Each structure stands twice: as structure tokens, then as C-alpha cells.
């Protein structure tokens, strides 16, 4: 489907102290930046993710990834969905695994080709000078040329095991997560956690509203399981800052 006319542009919030961010990133190789977008624009994006995004369920078992469109998943009998979940849980107890919903937005920095104008505007922003100049200055990576992007949604029971984001063939420099869930509570899970060389959790970021997380692709990280009692879904835009 051809990209539709974009909505109003997505804008950065005012007042970002890029030099201060750069000092934090240089020391920690990651950073959490609060109040990243203009609040009105973040709210528009959240509304689109809730109501106007074509989701598919991504399930990961080792090197095997499967994507099932949401309508197809909902058409399965309850017994089959339970069987698939039990199979994933059995695998996850002993090997790398994950489960969450996705919508692919941009692979090579191109505009989103779906019908949601806000997501078209978002991919334009992610590959525009305001965003790319900021992340280059914060990370010191002047070789960043573009951002790929996907929307992600984590609900109760969704998770992603510890992993690195290194992909030499993709020329990834940094990973980013733009959180777009209002009023998330830490006890609901879905935390972005970082693991040290001693296998201890060294730090974790709550998916705070309208916050950008940047991390080096060599940082070992995971997303903790969303609790079964979480009353809302965890929405974000994720991807990698890459060179050509």
C-alpha cells in the first residue's frame, strides 16, 4: 500500500541538553532521555498505536522467528493458542526466546508504507536532521546515516530474553527505544534491563512515558516479562541507528 499524506510533523520537545546527555552516554554506553517528543505529538502517536496499527505476533525460539497477523491469531481455536503458548514456554525455560507484537515501519529509512499518517510522519522524523543530529552528538557516532523502525507492543506474558544487538551485516551502531505508554508502573514488568559481566542486573529502565532510551549494540539487555495483572499494554517504537 502506498504511503498516505502525512499528518502534522513529529517534533522534539524543547530544552534538550545534548552536551549533558553526551557525557552520560560516554560514561555508561546508554542513556534514558525523559520528555523526548513534543507532548502533543507523543499523544498522537500513542493513539495511533492503540487504534490504527496492524499488529502481528512475533514469537522467537532460538534462531527461529515467526510472525502471525493478529486477525489470523484470533481465528485460532483457544486450544491451539494454548498449545503454542505452552510450546514457547517450554522452549523459553532452556533457550533464547521472546514474544511480543510488532508492526514493521521502515527497513532502510524509507517512509512507512501503510495507511496511518502518524506513522508516516514518525518515520520521516526518525530519518530527519533533528533526530539524527541529536543521536550522533549524544553517542559520538558520526557514521549514523539512518534509522530503521518497528512498533512494538508487549502485553501480559510477553518478554524478550537477554541478547546483544550486534549485526555486522546490518551495520548497526546503536539501538533505540521510544516509549509511548502513559503511566506505566514498575511492578507491571516490561522493564528494559541491562546485565553485567557477573550476570547480575546492573540497571533497568521503566518504560516511562515519552522517554527515549539509547544503547550501544554491545550492551547485553532484555525486556522483563509483563505481569499478568498489568492493566494496559506497553507500546514503543524500537529500532537501530545504522550506517550505509
Describe this structure in words.
The radius of gyration is 18 Å and the shape is globular. It is built from six helices and 13 strands. Strands 1, 2, 3, 4, 5, 6, 7, 8, 9, 10, 11, 12 and 13 form a 13-stranded antiparallel sheet that branches. By secondary structure, the protein is of the alpha+beta class. α1 packs across α6. It has a single domain, classed as q2cbj1_9rhob like domain (Jelly Rolls, Sandwich), CATH 2.60.120.
Secondary structure elements and pairings:
Elements: H1 18-28, E1 30-33, H2 39-51, E2 56-61, E3 64-69, H3 70-75, H4 78-92, E4 97-106, H5 117-126, H6 129-139, E5 146-147, E6 149-154, E7 159-163, E8 172-179, E9 192-195, E10 201-205, E11 212-216, E12 221-223, E13 234-242
Antiparallel strand pairs: 1-11, 2-3, 2-4, 4-6, 4-7, 5-13, 6-13, 7-12, 8-11, 8-13, 9-10, 9-12
Brief rundown of the structure:
The protein is of the alpha+beta class and 244 residues long. The protein has helices at residues 18-28, 39-51, 70-75, 78-92, 117-126, 129-139, and strands spanning 30-33, 56-61, 64-69, 97-106, 146-147, 149-154, 159-163, 172-179, 192-195, 201-205, 212-216, 221-223, 234-242. The protein has 6 helices and 13 strands.
